[in-house]
Write a structure and sequence with these properties.
about 170 residues, mainly alpha, two-stranded antiparallel sheet, 6 helices, 2 strands, about 75% helix
Length: about 170
Amino acid sequence: MARLSEWYGRLLDALVVAACVLLLLMTVMIGADVLSRNLGGGGVSVSNEISEDILYLMTLLAAPWLLRQGRHIRVDVLLRVIPKRLGWYCEWASDVLGLLSCTAMAVYGARAALASWKAGSMSVKTLVMPEWWLLAPLPVAFLLLAVEMLFRMQRLHAGERAPRDDAVSTG
């Protein structure tokens, strides 16, 4: 299990690097758009739309890595004041709910992408592209999040019977 977790962690590292590269590309594209408009070139007509799509994709690529690193948003004030064992059970409840939610989103996202593909739906803005291209990353990201929830459960089971310390926000 440790070897699988290590391999999975490297996959998530690669995905977050891809998100960083997309951020760099988006920054360059927006800069080129602004420069072009200010020099009278009219700008890059697709930059807003591509930026929207990149922001969406970056979020999906980085989310599993953020969850693994404990960098997600977490309100843990209550976990710090209740007995440690009860806090540990709350962590379990949170992980189970997270797993169920991520699995449901993966299934829903896969159904939506498949339905879009079967219907031949197109996204028509400045760029015209198949709608499923935009929908397909969603179920993949939520599947990766669900897998990470399983690894979180495994780490919680193997650790101390207390709340996690991976995203502590209070002293």
